[in-house]
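In the previous chapter we treated chains in isolation. Here, by contrast, the input contains four separate entities that must be folded as one system, with a combined length of 336 residues.
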Amino acid sequence: MKKPAAPAALGFAPSDHDHDDCVRAALQAAEAICRERGQRLTALRRQVLELVWSNHRPVGAYALLDRLQQVSGRAAAPTVYRALDFLQGLGLVHRLASLNAYAGCVRPGEAHTGQFLICTSCQALAELNDPAVAGAIAGSAEATGFSVGHSTVEISGLCPDCRSGVRS
Amino acid sequence: MKKPAAPAALGFAPSDHDHDDCVRAALQAAEAICRERGQRLTALRRQVLELVWSNHRPVGAYALLDRLQQVSGRAAAPTVYRALDFLQGLGLVHRLASLNAYAGCVRPGEAHTGQFLICTSCQALAELNDPAVAGAIAGSAEATGFSVGHSTVEISGLCPDCRSGVRS
DNA sequence: TTATATTATGTTATATTGTTGCAAAATCAA
DNA sequence: TTGATTTTGCAACAATATAACATAATATAA
């Protein structure tokens, strides 16, 4: 029997998790949020979100574009970027500045600034939301008189599996 | 009388600081580090470092290229990127992923992972090196079994001056 | 329901950032 | 000085992202 969905909320998704559940959960959350805020989750946007969620790795916009063209015919760069902007605006997708790539948000709807762990070996991504990190940053920044807007916290290194050699 | 050099090591550089001292200090540190490590601080690399240090704001590679062409004739993109790579390799310059831009390191030579405060209003940049932040990140990451390599911590918001209206 | 306004998408072109590959020049070491 | 190594010049190109404008789809109001 498979494990329950959205295990990535705290750390890395186990390799045996049922990823379909992750996708379903992400799409349902997206629908709920759009309904709530009077936004339209069009077929295209839904498609892009689904592609972003095809695994727990960041995806580049042009990789997304390739896949989109395979699935649903014609599309060009602005198509993807517009969908990503829309999804980011609703907090459904994050942009990873250090990779120029995108990933599904594991806590859609909740206002938050995630911290991201990026495996340099297998590209696995974990989104953390550790108040201690956010607090340390806020404290340090505000000690200098700086008022914090948006935080980019992206840590590269080795995920547990790659570290221990389960995947090398 | 002007204030002493390198005031930016902790927070934002005061607007009345003697910036020539910052540049001098950066160049001297660069020379020392290159000598120590048997690397060559060529005229070109020195020039690029000086341009990066022309103020306490991040600079894009192509802006740097423009200035370089004005100062020293012919140059192309790879010229700038190679010099930046060299300087980054020695820890003299940081790349800011969230801006695709570069800035002089205020603590050259010391191994460290800086945290950056970026003013969205005046583009002022402060480099922090707060062990509490680094520690919180390391703790949070290692709790998931992740082994930390490089950290990208870039916070955008309002610097003290812009916040208080000294600069609007 | 139709007319109108708004929003979303298609399309083409272009801007911005960064890299590759190879040749020429400068520097270093013997 | 010779030969090896490193640095720079140069040309082309790759990857990421945006602008501008036309068309299509959807929502809203009469």
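Chain B touches chain A through 39 residues (CB under 8 Å). Chain B has a mean pLDDT of 92. Compare these points with the single-chain example from earlier in the chapter.
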